[in-house]
Specification:
This protein has about 240 residues and is an all-alpha fold. Helix content is about 85%, strand content about 0%.
């Protein structure tokens, strides 16, 4: 009973994952089908345009004017890829055989036109291969460039982050140095004040609190810092001792 309940709960938990995977596969299949339809549609449109244009221009030339088919094949291979390019070669071959190579409106080929027809097929294959290879090379170069740009952007971001961290560390160091200097100044002033208080206590026979109040009062009257007042007291005491 426990095992059945466990299996049922597991299936219920895995059902959303299975549905998600199925939906993703369906979307991928639909996208791939749409892309393939578009690429082969481009090949069909290019060959159809070349076919009708060649029919319109045929009466101007004594021999079949087939150069537009090469353009259609190259465009199909460029925009669609290798398989649509070969599909365009097949369609062009059928169209040329049926409409432009005697006997007309037949897929048979006269012996005298076989070399001409074979040359057309080979040229169409070559055009498709050249166009497809050129497109693949350009796509590879573009991917390499995009990858390089992404790497440069990534390295630039890392460098900018490092510079920001260094600047922040420098600001913290300067702040610490300023705090250290301020603390050193406060400690030095406190030493002078303590020494001055001791001198006043000895000379005036007063308590420590009274000596501090005397220094503070003189500082307010003279508008000087406690450190400066303390230094003057210490200097006067040293001069007295030196004169004695």
């Amino acid at each position: 009973m426990f095992h059945k309940e466990f299996i049922r709960n597991s299936l219920v938990a895995l059902r959303p994952i299975a549905l998600t995977s199925a939906a993703e596969r369906a979307r991928w299949t639909k996208s791939r089908w749409a892309s393939g339809t578009r690429r082969y549609g481009i090949a069909l449109a290019c060959v159809a345009a070349a076919h009708y244009s060649s029919l319109l221009l045929q009466h101007l030339f004594p021999y079949p004017f087939l150069f537009l088919f090469f353009a259609g094949v190259m465009a199909s291979a460029w925009f669609g890829g290798t398989a649509p390019g070969l599909f365009a070669v097949l369609l062009s071959t059928l169209a040329v055989d049926y409409y432009f190579v005697p006997p007309f409106h037949s897929f048979a080929v006269n012996a005298t036109d076989t070399a001409y027809f074979v040359a057309f097929v080979l040229c169409a294959l070559a055009a498709s291969w050249v166009s497809s290879s050129k497109r693949q090379s350009e796509e590879a170069l573009r991917e390499a460039r995009d990858h390089l740009e992404a790497r440069v952007a990534e390295r630039t971001a890392e460098l900018q982050k490092t510079i920001t961290e260094l600047q922040e560390n420098e600001r913290q160091r300067e702040r610490l140095e300023n705090e250290k200097s301020a603390l050193s100044g406060q400690l030095e002033a406190r030493k002078h004040v303590e020494r001055a208080k001791g001198i006043l206590q000895r000379e005036m026979k007063i308590s420590e609190e009274e000596a501090y109040r005397a220094l503070q009062k003189q500082s307010q009257q003279m508008r000087k810092s406690m450190k400066e007042i303390a230094e003057s007291v210490i200097l006067n005491d040293e001069l007295k001792r030196g004169s004695q």
